[in-house]
Amino acid sequence: MSSFIRKSITRRTALKGFGAAAGLVAGPGFVRYSQAQSSEPIRIGFQAHRTGIGASYGRWYERTTNAAVKAINAAGGINGRQVEIIVEDDGTDPGRGAEVVGKFANQHKVDVAFGTLFSHVVIGSAPAAGENKLPYYVVSEGHHVASTKLNRYVFQPGITDVKSQIQAMAPWIASNAGKKVTQIFPDFAFGYDHRDYLPPALKAQGADVIAQIAIPPTESSFTKYFPQIPADTDVIYHVMVGPAVLTFVKELGEFYGSNRPQLFGFIDSLEAVDVNSPGLEFLEGSHFWEGSPRYAQPDDSDAQKAYRAAVGIDDNGASVDDPKDISTAAHMFGCWETLYVIKKAMEDSGYQGRDDAAKLVEATEALTEFAEGPEHPQGPKIFNGKIHQCFGIQNISKLEGGRLNVVHKTSIEDGMYEPEGDYTTQPL
Amino acid sequence: MPALLAAVLPLLPTDALAHASERGHVLILPTGYYLVGGALAVAASFAVLGLLRGDALERAFAARLPIGTLGESGRLATSLVSFAFLATLVAAGFLGSRDPLSNPLPLTVWTLLWVGLTFVQGMFGNLWRWIDPWYGPWRLASRLIGRNAADAPPLALPAWLAMWPALLLLLAFAWFELVYPAPDDPEKLGLVVGLYWLFSFAAMLALGHAEWSRRGEFLSVFFAMVARFGIVERTPSPDGKNRLALCLPGAKLATTEPLPFSGTLFLLAALGSVSFDGLSKTFFWLGTNGINPLEFPGRTAMMGINGTGLLAVSALLAAAYLVSVAAGEALARGRESGFAAAAGLLVWSIVPIALAYHFAHYLTALLVNGQYALVALSDPFARGWNLFGTAWWQVEAALATGSAAAWTIWNLQAGAIIGGHVLAVLAAHRLAFRLHPTPRAALLSQLPLTLLMVAYTVLGLWLLSTPTVG
């Protein structure tokens, strides 16, 4: 019976679009189903990195998720139903990730899966979401969703992707930091994104990458690479990651002393790390990409203030209960915003239960923009339903006096690029 | 579809979420000095012991401070309480939160039992004897089928099996903990713990509780071994009571019997598995196996490599130990006792090293997950209960993060590793005198083992200071 319902809804939805929701409710089988489900909570499967290498991110993703669900429930839930979170740990492991998504679909019978951060877990889990026709909303910043190489059930509506982030940095770097850029990056896929996306974006702004220094991923001492940095470098664009980041910064400081080029980096490797840690002194005065600012800013919107209070972070971006517990502020807002996108799409589609998954997918694809406000405290966003990816503003912050002050907010357009495909042509 | 994804995977931009982590703070500490200093300290302790008169040392270790007596009668009750507690935890594994940091089963098994109780056993003595969850049910079941505790069990474990069953089970446990992708999953762990309890219970009914606890049930074997180092000594007295006395750490080793070969391998595998846990996360291990540590692929992808590594490291450690003992016996021309007895006796000196590795390696987990455990135990089934008043405790998850904590923890770890090895040298020294009555032969026999201990000190400190994932 249920498979018949799913088929019929899918077909009708495909014919009439998501506006057909009212007509569907009139179907006899569907009415019974919706009555049985209406008082049940909306169940959201939270695929969390509770153990494994992503655990410190996972902790903050969980806190942000809980805060958003609390706010959503306090305001009446989704379609009048309370939201319930079912946490499953994926161990930051793609193999486990696929298993967890399968469990969400078949054992926990959740309505949607949500919240995955690490790219390889998203890529490993996406097929399970597609096979089970379970809408899967990730908060990962990887370009994998927007590449349209995953499947129609996978969305990233709450955080921008890394391709967009890199591209959006170019105008500011070219006009403020300098025209001659040397890139230092780890010698693997993550570093290659920066290696490949930055130069054309800088070129368009009249600046050049004059050297690219790839560092082997297992390297733990960096001094021997620094002589490769050209003497006429205006800006060092560094995206080193992993435990040796502090060593990298310390040795760069020892190499240059007080007379150094401009420094520009991504906060990712220092997420959850105090920027005032010993070894990082050399970063004073340098600039960073931040998805959402770690430190409270003088011009924070009321929505941003309310969001920070709800999640429980202080003006330094640390837990209000423990000043040593530094948040992953640059990314975790994505959980908050994604949950509100799920809410909006469920409301738009009159979502009742799992049999409405196809309608929910289409309703999500039909979204086009999110206004800045309590539901989207990081800023306004444009959503491209064909590639299932949002685009938003980026922050460039300067490390001054031991705190990160936002000195520039990019426009959404700075990070837009041509779509690489179209998920909506895939069957549901 | 997975094949297609695997093909496109390297082409997809990834995120940079391998953040600096706590090891990053340790990497900029002057850890090299600790490695050199630790090696010198352990070597120096050997030299100092050579100058000491053996009988003075033994007099100190023979000192006992009686602290009272303890009857056997309470053991049935404490074991039954422990069993009820375990049964509740297993039920929570199936019915409680799916989140391994909210469910009390994984937190109790991996943090309170495997880490916390090991420390308690090593520092004090065999508490496990009172809270082992099989003794009580075994006594009751025996009574039901009309058997007395003193009766011979229905079946006898063949002597040639020695402690091989315990070794096999320990390796299986280590594999589940370190290699299997989801040892923290409450439901899976509940299944494993439940089945293991049943299996052991059946073995105890058939072979006797004492016998299976001594040779088969690996937790009882391990906990009894590390308790040899504790400062509380229990001596059964004819009136059925236990006399308790305080002694110096390691004093009880003076009366230990040599372990059979399988028991020797058991103790070395216990140390080897913890060592491998450390090694398996290092950039060195990942790089050696062609894995980019900054793109750590997760445990599922590492199962083959880490399963092999776990066995290889344990085997390598055992080989290094046995070669050291053989070389020592050759140096001392030890005809008195023979290689087997020497290997079985001297292996007791590994206990403080195993304890030190356990402490250093799991300290952070104990500090942080210990808090989660106390919270979870108050609400085992995620029903909003607050049984012990701890359900709403604020977990200081960042207790062990930041540069200051990294400095403190590194020094505690280094202190434990170096101290543990110094105590091991001391223990080996005393055990060697039991094998070789002349001081010259005793000292010569320890030289190779001391070298191994110096090397293991350096390895232990290196494991804690080299770049790792997570």
Task: Give a brief description.
The complex is a heterodimer of chains A (428) and B (470). Helices cover 37% and strands 18% of the residues of chain A.
Question: How is this structure best described in words?
Answer:
The complex is a heterodimer of chains A (428) and B (470). In chain A, strands 7-6-8-9-10-16-17 form a 7-stranded mixed sheet. In chain A, α4 packs across α11 and α5 runs parallel beside α6. Chain A folds into 2 domains: 221 residues, Rossmann fold (3-Layer(aba) Sandwich); 150 residues, Rossmann fold (3-Layer(aba) Sandwich). Chain A is 37% helix and 18% strand. The N terminus of chain A is likely disordered. Chain A is of the alpha/beta class. The longest helix of chain A is centred in the C-terminal third of the chain and has 21 residues. Chain B has 470 residues and is mostly helical. Chain B has one domain. Chain B is built from 19 helices and 3 strands. Chain B has a 3-stranded antiparallel sheet with strand order 1-3-2, with no helix packed on it. In chain B, a hairpin with a 4-residue loop joins β2 and β3. In chain B, α5 packs antiparallel against α10, α6 runs parallel beside α12 and α15 runs antiparallel to α19. The longest helix of chain B is centred in the last third of the chain and has 33 residues. In chain B, 50% of the residues are buried. The N terminus of chain B is likely disordered. Chains A and B meet through α4, β2, α5, α6 and α8 of A and α1, α2, α14 and α15 of B.
Helix and strand topology:
The complex is a heterodimer of chains A (428) and B (470).
Chain A: H1 2-16, H2 21-25, H3 28-38, E1 42-48, H4 55-74, E2 83-89, H5 94-106, E3 112-114, H6 119-131, E4 136-137, E5 154-155, H7 162-177, E6 180-186, H8 189-203, E7 208-215, E8 235-238, H9 245-256, E9 262-266, E10 287-290, H10 302-311, E11 318-319, E12 322-326, H11 329-349, H12 357-365, E13 369-370, E14 381-384, E15 389-392, E16 395-400, E17 403-409
Parallel strand pairs in A: 1-2, 1-3, 3-4, 4-5, 6-7, 6-8, 8-9, 9-10
Antiparallel strand pairs in A: 10-16, 11-12, 13-14, 14-15, 16-17
Chain B: H1 2-8, H2 21-27, H3 31-51, H4 54-62, E1 65-71, H5 74-95, H6 104-123, H7 128-131, H8 135-144, H9 164-178, H10 186-207, H11 209-215, H12 218-227, E2 232-236, E3 241-246, H13 261-279, H14 283-288, H15 299-331, H16 339-346, H17 351-378, H18 403-435, H19 439-465
Antiparallel strand pairs in B: 1-3, 2-3
Helix pairs in contact in B: 2-18, 3-18, 3-19, 5-6, 5-8, 5-10, 6-12, 6-17, 9-13, 9-15, 10-11, 13-15, 13-17, 15-16, 15-19, 16-18, 17-18, 18-19
